[in-house]
Predict the 3D structure of the following.
Amino acid sequence: MATHRIGILTGGGDAPGLNAVIRAVIKYGVGKLHWQVVGIEDSFNGLLEVPHRLQDLTPQSCQGILHRGGTILGTTNRGNPFSYPDGEGGLVDRGPEVAKAIRDEGLEGLIIIGGDGTQAIGLQLMDEYGIPVVGVPKTIDNDLSATDLTFGFISAVETATDALDRLHTTAESHDRVMILEVMGRDAGWIALWAGVAGGADCIAIPEIAYDPERFCAKIRERRARGRHFTIIVVAEGAKPAEGDALPSKVAHGKGTLRTGGAAQTLAQLITERVNVETRTTVLGHLQRGGGPVAFDRVLATEFGVRAVELIQAGRWGEMVRWSEGKVSSVPIREAVSEYRRVEDDHPLISAGRAVGIEFGG
Ligand code: F6P
């Protein structure tokens, strides 16, 4: 049986389940198939430093990580080697260095675990330097094309749902409007799923530019029914249809801008219209931290095994995915072709409307 020597890395924002993928690749690829799998630290950065920062991964080194959050390899979402910060405010192309490092380390190819950005880097490495890659989709935002689900998403939804359950009790005790801001970049998957699961009265997602008056009407309508509290979940990328929003991109050091301010914007627009106490909660990185839920452990394990099977079959250039209720694969090119937003006619939006949730538009 052919023995392979491959590299594996995790890129972009971390997500619950990364370690479960690594564990599956190692248990099957090394443990069963006797391959050599080399962990590359901090996404592609591990290949840009000399000596390269690598770890020989064995079933022993992956013991006890199935349930652990984060990634044992480390990651970064500022490490695109093709436009790498030069430390003087400029960007340089360090692609050739990465390709040379991969060859110098005798790596036949890479398994890259990441979101659309990381998959696109892998594709460019393959196109420009002939480095074979297999992709594993990872993001809590679930905004990667060509896959119905990415691991980490359901864990983030569970965390947001738990937060909504908690906000219910304090909102009801104080007759307040509670606004929970969740992550998701420019897509509303986390807000939509957690909003329905957490019994939100209103959900604001980027895909539906909202009319704040409709949320206010919901607050008034609930009051008229003796329900003097309202629960609203807002995706970090959601915006009002009209008027100025508070900064949606706020500085977070190192000259980078972040999506933010959506909950504050909505609270302000509501208190301008309704005499009610509002409180905002930004869930932030709690959605990225902590161990994966059972579903994400299963999905991540299946993804890791399938990545090894793709390499066994010589099917480099593909990304594993979850589609029609099972694991399969798709060309990476297709997976990074477009950004995956919630479709206007998504069944969960109509189900949400049917149970009385207001989407603002
Ligand atoms: O893509 C994952 C994600 O958590 C987004 O939901 C969020 O907008 C962004 O990353 C936050 O990035 P950072 O960890 O760099 O603040």
In short: The pocket of 6-O-phosphono-beta-D-fructofuranose is lined by residues 13, 77, 139-141, 183-185, 236, 258-259, 288 (CB under 6 Å).
